[in-house]
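# nightly structure sweep
# worker-07 picked up a monomer target from the shared queue
# config: single-sequence mode, recycle default, output format = structure tokens
# input follows
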Amino acid sequence: MPAPLTGGCLCGAIRYTVSVPITELRRITQGTPKRYKATADSGRALHRFFCGDCGSPLFSGREVTPENTSLRIGTLDAEHAGGMKITGNIWTKSARSWAHIDPGTLPHPGQPDAPTKR
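# output follows
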């Protein structure tokens, strides 16, 4: 098993540890994020979590699949972020004309399906 990854918000009020493959957020180790509930284009509820002090977006997840969490990779501590690589882009159909999308990545015009349970 790889070494745990750590991260948090800009002001440090929220900290977390990811102790399983990066496809999962394991636990919050400090603070309590605020939650904003929105309706996605699919009509399903989406929960966005952020720091209530500095506003840093941390992670999000669909209400129907709470076991799947999308971590904002920019919140990882600097020593962990170096090995990350963008492999895909979502919502490319609404990308601004000035947005660079690496042609070597997998484009998703909208929201891709959630990963299947193992």
